[in-house]
Amino acid sequence: MSKKLPPRAENLRRALAQEAARVMAEHGVRDFLFAKRKAAERFGIVDGSVLPRNTEIEDALREYQRLFRGEAHVESLYAQRQVAADVMHRLRKFQPRLVGPVLHGTATAHDDVLLHVFTERAETITLELMEQGVPHEVGERRVRLNAERVVNQPCVRLEVDDQPVELVIFGVDGIRQSPVSPVDGNPMRRANLEEVEALLANG
Fold this sequence. Notes:
The protein has helices at residues 7-27, 32-43, 54-90, 101-104, 123-131, 193-201; strands spanning 97-99, 113-118, 137-144, 150-160, 163-170. By secondary structure, the protein is an alpha+beta fold. Strands 1-2-5-4-3 form a five-stranded mixed β-sheet. It starts with 6 loop residues before the first helix and ends with a helix. The mean pLDDT is 93.
């Protein structure tokens, strides 16, 4: 259990979270540590004990988008989720799952739609995209599977309606255990196509 900070330090922590959220929202930053450092630099803070947790920054990011982005954020997020649903339809045989900021509702206009797909051979994803005539690039993405293990997973990048999409490819068994979330260290939340469609239906 974390030690409770004095009121002044708690206020500073909230201010740092808000500044880090602003950096992420306005500059498309997804690295929480980088955003914290930029916020600390602006406030002239060297005491690490007052730095906010990632979850606090994520909460501040939601609040920032609600206050300063309003309807524009709602429309942007809806469009990103529509793209996610479209790609998930196309790749339904690979049991796609939406993860990350687009799922959590914290995505900025700079964020990719991030999907996990599952297959025995990574080439089957690229072959499927080639058959559908979808231009794409092959690469790798670092993924933390648990507290001790970080691996490079194959990934494919493409664009739909000018929206970047990244498909991180896992083995078929990878659907059973989500990688660790960079926000809170817990297993990543994953949403299937039906869940994404439900989010769209709810606006």
